[in-house]
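A favour, since you know our structure tokens better than I do. It will help me judge whether the discrete encoding reads sensibly. The space below this message is yours for that.
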Amino acid sequence: MAGRWVYGLNKTTLRDVAAAQTVEDLAAVTISCLTTMGFRHMTYHLVKIAGYGDFLPTLFSSFPEDWTNRYLTRGYAKADPVLRAARMTCLAFDWRDLTARTLSEGDRRYLGEASAHGVSDGYTVPVHFPKGFAVFSVHPDGAERDRFDLLALAGPAVMSLAFHVHDRACSLMEQRVLVERAIDSGLSERERECITWLCAGHSATEIADILTIAPATVTHH
């Protein structure tokens, strides 16, 4: 395929990830890429980042809505053996590797429940960084053998995409926090508008054009 860089992933996709202006945009680009690669579901969860408190979590997912709601409302993050394993390693892993470990009855019950909701095999990339921790997981589509082959072929591409998505998600999180703090600080509406556009990556000249004011006024705000 023209422009192919690594299995199912090309530089155009990574540029689109870097250009995403909102978490929703980032989710759409990520899900589209993984669907093209043959993955049925994915989830990205910025679990912890120091200093951002109640602004977390940043989470987007294409997993079945009934399963996602069940996971969140029942607090399964505390029981999830995949999340627990991700906290203990820096290496990406196939969920089938978990079966080679000693699993508790609760772990097996959780995995069985996930499987009943259409979430059985998967591949997780843990992202440990100085400020916190995130996980990026994918679930392949197709028959068992097809899922095995896809994970074998696409692992490096998934890891690369995971780290690029995480980098952009952190940037968007920081932008949102700056805007929220600006709102809480008692700034004027125009000052908040300037900060919002600045956090989105625009220069003073570009912001002046958007708001139809002078560049010097933007700088003053």
Residues 134 and 201 are 24 Å apart (CA to CA). The mean pLDDT is 82. The two ends are 48 Å apart (CA to CA). Strands lie at 4-6, 9-10, 39-49, 58-61, 93-94, 123-129, 132-140.
